[in-house]
Amino acid sequence: MGVQLVSDGNGKAVSDYAPEDAALLCAVGRLVCAWTMLEQSLEAKIGLLRDAMGDIRTVGARTRPSMAKLMTELRTMVAMRDRRNASALTEISAIERDIQRIDRFRALIIQGFHQPEPGGFTCRDSRNTIHHVAFDHLDGEIAALEGVASRLLAV
Fold first, then answer.
1. Range 21-37 average pLDDT
2. What distance in Å separates the CA atoms of residue 155 and residue 148, rounded to the nearest whole number?
3. Which of 54, 80, 96, 105 lies at a C-alpha separation of 20 to 30 Å from 112?
4. Given phi > 0 = left and psi -120 to 50 = alpha, else beta, which region is 47?
5. 3-class SS string, the chain
6. Residue 155 in contact with residue 143, Cβ under 8 Å?
């Protein structure tokens, strides 16, 4: 079913995957795209805050900053903007917890993918424990990631 090891240099074309494998590839790709869109939304939000504060520097001019650095910068800028209103900082903390949870899930998928299984696929974590990930769970995490992006823009 699905993936085979390449020993003779002949790879398997994407069109040769079974329909359930194509759905798997699509779902994993959606997760990666949603994460990238979240990073871009966060960079845009920081850029807007900088413009509003009169700062014209660009975010990560030389190297792309990590998600942790972007969140730290967002927290700092919001704290400067809303000195007396802690509700925005509370929301940022909740968003950070959600991002960290989703990032652990994303790392499990990307680094630990093992093989397709009925209804999903299996992954191995850093302790070599096998986890079954259902497509519904993957779709839920993608939806959560998109929700985090909209919450970030509302801060």
1. 87
2. 11
3. 96
4. alpha
5. CCCCCCCCCCCCCHHHCCHHHHHHHHHHHHHHHHHHHHHHHHHHHHHHHHHHCCCCCCCCCCCCCCHHHHHHHHHHHHHHHCCCCCHHHHHHHHHHHHHHHHHHHHHHHHHHEEEEECCEEEEECCCCCEEEEEHHHHHHHHHHHHHHHHHHHHC
6. no
**Residue matched to tokens 């970030």:** 152
More confidently predicted of 58 and 109: 109
Q: Which residue has the tokens 């000195």?
A: 83
Measured CA to CA, the distance from residue 25 to residue 93 in angstroms comes to: 32
User: What would the pLDDT profile of 73-107 be if each residue is shown by its tens digit?
Assistant: 888 888 888 777 788 889 999 999 999 999 999 99
Closest CA to 107 of 117, 116, 118, 99: 99
